Amino acid sequence: MREILAFVRSNISIIAASITVCTLLAIFYLLMATPIYSADASVLIETSRGFNTPNEAVRTDLMTDQARVENQMEIIKSHRVAQVVIAKLQLESNDEFSTSPTSISLLFQSIAKIFSGEPTAEELARERKKQSRRVQARFIERMAVRRIGQSLVMEVAFLSRSPELAAEVANEIADAYVRDIVNDRSELARRRTEWLSERLDLLQKQTFDAQRAVERFKLLGDTGPAADIRAKLAELESVSQSYRRMYDGFLQQYAETSQRVSYPEPDAKIVSQAEIPLRKTHPRSILILAFSLFLGVASGTGIALVRSTMKRSVGAPKQIPEQIGVPCLGVTSDIGGAISRNRVRIPSPPWLASVPWLAKAPWFALPPAPTGLSLSSMGDMNFALSRQLREVKASINALTLRQSSLCIGVVSPRSGSGATTVAAGLAYLYANSGKKTLLIDACNNTSRLSRELSNGDQVGLMQAMRSTDAWTQVLERETTLPFRLLPRGDQRDGDSPADRFGAKDSSFQRMREEFEVVIVDLPSLSTSSDARTIGSYLDGVVVVADFASTTIDKLTSAVGELHEARSDVLGVVLNKVDENRRVRWRM
Fold this sequence. Notes:
This protein is of the alpha/beta class. About 55% of the residues lie in helices and about 10% in strands. α5 packs across α7.
């Protein structure tokens, strides 16, 4: 969890930028998207109404409520109901449903007219049919029907850009569905009435024929035994009574069916009418903003993971011994920024310094110094350096405990990593601890120490390597620094400190005999090969890595180059680490 929090904090800017972009896109979409309103009406299915034949009644009882409701839902979503609503409300001329031809389609139609002539009546009718089907498809896409819980109530909803139109169409769909059921019932009753009428005529004739047969038998009689005569009469009367009962039953059904034709009762009714919605249904602002927040966090984390994987930057001090094989001597933050914060409080534009009363104001201050150590203000380094580099100094002392004199070099894989800052800070700490300390500027390209601390002295390292008089002059030079500084000095064309270290080894030995601690500020490995040459003459080399930009690969390559040059790498110092991260690593 600690590593996860450290990863999030180190990449908080990327995640915050991703969240900001996604949120802005979501807000832009919400502002530009057309609001959609939803209105819904409720319809109840009443299975007790209507009329069925005995067989149909049995089948209806066996049908489950779920199947019955699903059947009615499909009827509501049918094209027949859609056609009725579209025709009544004239939705084909509405902008939401009409499909106006585009400019490209009009161009193709014009070209087709030139070659094929005017369309025929059949083609026009076919095109109108296609247009009607497209309108119906769009209408059905905007309609939604669902069952409310386990009840027999269906909710009919319709989506539209106009809240009034949404409510009107939803109510019309419910009315059209109920009217469709009424029409079906009326048509079914009419067909049954016709069938019953024909059946009644036949039953009436059969009943009259049976009754006449009974009367004729009673009047004329029959020959044979009396028992047979009575049995035959009973049979004729039974047939006549059966036809009479059938006729009376069909006559009653005919009367009921005729009544239903004039007043059919549907098996569904509207429970609640659709009201004009007060709020939009789509787009859902809260849901979209929440999704944009989730997408921003996910995309920002993904980008940070990819960036971390591709860059392979140092994420923690424990990675150095695990992946590079050398110890981590310590972690330092922006020392120069700390010094600047001690000296100034509120940054102000430089042009305000031209105003006298503003320049003397207690709250006025120039902008902070650039990132890095301000070598021209060594007196302000006491608190910052003692707090930042004390751990590094202790680690170096532990690794070089048995040596009477110490000569170390400070190098970085690339320029701008803060090697000069660390070298000057270590020299300051060793000098304050009572050791006679010499700081050597061996950077033949930047020579920042020489520019800021030597006051333009031309006699330095190059001259001390050549003659003893120059070395004596350097030692007797007055300085306000707590340590001795050996600047680069005047450099000839093609000459470098590495060449002088190899050629005048006795001069280097005099330096080690004269001082207890010698710190050499080496050029970066990416700009010069002198660091590899000079490092082989030193007791050890400290590698300074910029936490913000130095990757594991670059750091591994730098340590490997020093090992190949037979330099003893004491360890790595992580520089420019924010204070919060340093505190978390120590917890």
